């Protein structure tokens, strides 16, 4: 089985619960877990979520636990190393970056004279204290490909000639893989399993709480963890070649194409 989750967004308790559910299943040599990025932002335990993904890869190996990069990890990198400020819109009051600090370091922020100085202090602390984690994060893969699937945070370039489709993972810019919008639907030469955009948004229905399948080639598994407290889990049976939603109660529910208004 291949299991996949995405868009944890700092919701450590939800993430940990799912991992404990999957851990005994990963002991099966034929099973693997693919994490599609966006471990950080919006929740109050971003550091713990990123660290858990790192530890899972260390525990099981990078061929069994495949960790991909999302746009929020990209923004975090740009904030730390390129002085880009996109991150600051997501990180008001250091909600995310503060989770990488010790209690003493966080208290120090209150005595610093202004926000600019606080920002530099936060970056200095994170880079000094979490070098191994940051080196790992910067090297995260952008996609994982099988014979019939592409797992990616946001998507790939599908507006290419059909005869060149097999080169899409090479030709797609990095920023598209982590931040593609709007999401694609319809037929593609491989199945696309992505996060980034909430499944309820694709369904045009805020009450929709499952994995969104367009009925052709696209599965979207972002359950809006920060808003709706959901971490969806897709399960793919490689022998049966069937997709399931793996629910928190341990049941597998076959995924069928969504009908708008149904």
**CATH fold-level label:** Purple Acid Phosphatase, chain A, domain 2
Percent helix, as a range, is 25-40%
Quickly count the domains: 1
Order of helices and strands: EHEHEHHHHHEEHHEHEEHEEE
Count of individual helical segments:
11
What is the strand arrangement across the widest sheet? 3-2-1-9-10-11
| SS content category | alpha/beta
Write down the Rg.
Answer: 19 Å
Low-confidence parts? none
How would you characterize this protein structure?
It is a single chain. This protein is of the alpha/beta class. Strand 10 (242-246) and strand 11 form a beta hairpin. The chain has helices at 12-26, 46-60, 71-81, 86-90, 103-108, 115-129, 131-138, 168-171, 174-179, 199-203, 225-228, and strands at residues 2-5, 32-35, 65-67, 143-145, 149-152, 191-198, 212-213, 218-222, 234-237, 242-246, 252-254. The relative contact order is 0.15. The chain has one domain (2-254): Purple Acid Phosphatase, chain A, domain 2 (4-Layer Sandwich). The strands form 2 sheets. A 6-stranded mixed beta sheet has the order 3-2-1-9-10-11, covered by helices on one side. The protein has 11 helices and 11 strands. The longest helix is centred in the N-terminal third of the chain and has 15 residues, at 12-26. 36% of the residues lie in helices and 17% in strands. This is Metallophosphoesterase. It holds the Pfam family Metallophos. It comes from Eubacterium segne. InterPro entries: Ap4A_hydrolase (IPR050126), Calcineurin-like_PHP (IPR004843), Metallo-depent_PP-like (IPR029052), Rhodanese-like_dom (IPR001763), Ser/Thr-sp_prot-phosphatase (IPR006186). Residues 13-84 form the Rhodanese domain.
């Amino acid at each position: 089985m291949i299991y996949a989750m995405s868009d944890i967004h700092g919701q450590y308790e939800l993430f940990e619960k799912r991992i404990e559910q999957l851990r005994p299943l990963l002991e099966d040599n034929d099973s693997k877990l693919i994490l599609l990025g966006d471990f950080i932002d919006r929740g109050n335990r971003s550091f713990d979520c990123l660290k858990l993904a790192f530890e899972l890869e260390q525990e099981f190996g990078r061929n069994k636990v495949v960790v991909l990069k999302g746009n929020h990890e990209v923004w975090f990198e740009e904030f730390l190393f390129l002085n880009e400020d996109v991150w600051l819109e997501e990180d008001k009051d250091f909600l995310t970056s503060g989770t990488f600090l010790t209690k003493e370091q966080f208290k120090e922020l209150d005595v610093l004279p202004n926000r600019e100085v606080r920002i530099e202090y936060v970056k200095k602390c994170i880079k000094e204290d979490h070098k191994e984690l940051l080196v790992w994060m910067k090297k995260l893969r952008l996609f994982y490909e099988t014979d019939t699937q592409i797992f990616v945070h946001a998507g790939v370039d599908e507006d290419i000639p059909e005869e060149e489709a097999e080169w899409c993972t090479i030709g797609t810019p990095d920023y598209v893989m982590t931040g593609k919008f709007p999401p694609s639907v319809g037929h593609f030469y491989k199945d696309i399993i992505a996060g980034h955009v909430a499944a309820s948004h694709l369904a045009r229905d805020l009450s929709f709480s499952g994995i969104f399948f367009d009925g052709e080639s696209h599965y979207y598994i972002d359950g809006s963890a920060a808003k709706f407290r959901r971490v969806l889990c897709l399960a793919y049976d490689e022998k049966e070649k069937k997709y399931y939603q793996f629910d928190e109660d341990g049941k597998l529910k076959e995924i069928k194409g969504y009908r708008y208004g149904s």
